[in-house]
Amino acid sequence: MSNIALQHFDSWFAPGAPSALVVKEYLEPAAGKGSVIFPPTFAQEEGSKEKGGRYIIDGEGATSTCLLDTVGSQANRLEPVFLEAELKALVPQVSVKVQSREISILELGHRAADAVIRSTELAQALRAAFAALASGNAEPLAKIAPTSLVFGAWDSRDTQTKLPRLIDSTIRAYNVAERKRGAQFFGGLEKSEIAEFELGADSDALSKAGFLDAPAGVTHGGIEVKGDILRTTILNLTAIRAIGGSSPEETERLHRYVLGLALVAAFNPSDLFLRQGCLLVRDRDAAKPIGCELAFRDGRRESVAVDFELAKTYAFLAATAFGVGEGRSVPFDPAAARALLAKPEDKKPKKGK
Predict the structure, then answer these.
(1) Is residue 294 part of a domain?
(2) Is residue 257 part of a domain?
(3) Most buried residue, 14, 37, 78, 157, by most Cβ within 10 Å?
(4) Residue 174's closest CA among 15, 44, 28, 340?
(5) For residue range 183-241, what is the model confidence (pLDDT) as tens digits?
């Protein structure tokens, strides 16, 4: 039974296999459809005279689309699921001890290429792993930081090795109307009391301390979504097949292991608290079930049945067969960090030495 389950997705690695798994999940605001939610704000385009942040809204009216969560943001939300008790055995639990706290590699922005993990005794092992990956062998990296293979990394400060994201997930809202809001703060003291208590007449100082009334003015008030909110996740099966091991047998085990991790991340039923004012839940409309299909290079699409329980079972079987790497806690090395900060010319040996 276990052997059959382990082979469950092997057709995805065979000749003529699908290019991608596409998952579409319809969402709605926790307060219900039509409620105002808050998208992220982004800096203005270079050269723009507008001040402050802005929402990313393309098109107008019924054709408008608003970005609620980016690919990078989704990746940063998905990767830490492997810290959860039921899933942590799937990957080596590697962390960096910085004074009195522990930082998991799963929480580092640049993953295996992050400056924090490179400032530890694992630096050389990671460098060798990136070098091996560049030569076609991803096993060493999979033994230390397998989620870097799933969510992508770029060793931009050393080997220049790049790993593409296997999971491309975004959340967008359709047919949106932007709203505005304003606010007014009222100080607790009357002006006569401020004078009586001799708190001074410097309005700037009084305002900063919170004694004066302060209107916030008109600012972003979120969006009203009149259409759908859709989370689209694309699992790049073509990129998984490009990952190699030290032998055909090891490559097969590695493919299964990486696919298992990617499926767990893609189907994990995490809460979607994106930011203050943007808590989303599943849309239970019977006409909008979670869609899951395989996309082939020739344009064919086939529906496929995958859910979190299947993904989790498969992932544990694949992890056991591959052999999860050793977890460890390594101390942060300030001297190694200072070496990373040194200018390239500072690292060159001086003449005569």
Answers:
(1) yes
(2) yes
(3) 37
(4) 28
(5) 667 777 777 777 766 777 777 777 777 777 776 666 777 899 999 999 999 999 999 99
